[in-house]
Amino acid sequence: MAREKIQIKKIDNATARQVTFSKRRRGLFKKAQELSVLCDADIALIIFSSTGKLFEYASSSMKEILERHNLHAKNLSKIEQPSLELQLVENSNYSALSKEITAQSQQLRQIRGEEIQGLNLEELQQLEKSLEAGLGRVIEKKAMRLVEENERLRQQVLEKHNSQKPVRADSENIVMEEGQSSESVTTNLCNSNSAPQDYESSDTSLKLGLPYSG
What we know:
Low-confidence stretches: 194-202, 204-208
Subcellular location: Nucleus
Keywords: Differentiation, DNA-binding, Nucleus, Transcription, Transcription regulation
Number of strands: 2
Number of domains: 3
Radius of gyration: 57 Å
GO molecular function: DNA-binding transcription factor activity; protein dimerization activity; RNA polymerase II transcription regulatory region sequence-specific DNA binding
Helix content: over 70%
Largest sheet: 2 strands, antiparallel
Pfam families: K-box (PF01486), SRF-TF (PF00319)
Oligomer: single chain
InterPro entries: MADS-box/MEF2_TF, MEF2-like_N, TF_Kbox, TF_MADSbox, TF_MADSbox_sf
């Protein structure tokens, strides 16, 4: 048979309420003890009954656990509420940083030629010197970059030229070989053409009765 689920609300009957309190208090202390043993935790329980009676449980020393609790609460309040001196220092740092950011922003706008109406002659001359110095550094850096780029391009052209030299040498060898072959063919043709001429000369000499000098 299933147990009837107890509705969580105040028990009106004083006797029943006291019995339930005693049972549940013992069960709560037992669970606290088990939790302390299983998890190696420091646990302290303080209970006041409806009649004002004190019941407590501590896994070690109740006094030491309460002192640790109070110390932790004090440290936590210090972290949440910083001291007045710290607040003053933070406000001072914030004010100094804010002023520096404002000054740097104004100087940057003046370098771009903005907000210079209120500058006097000395301030304008100082701004001009700053711009000239900055422009000189830019020109110098640009010249260095141009020299580096020219050197890089020169190296690329030189590497490309060196890589094409063997190809040209091979081409010249091929042309020479082809020239020699042409000369050989010409020589062979000349030799072949000269043979019939000798034959014709000998035949003519025989017909005329002349001595053959072949």
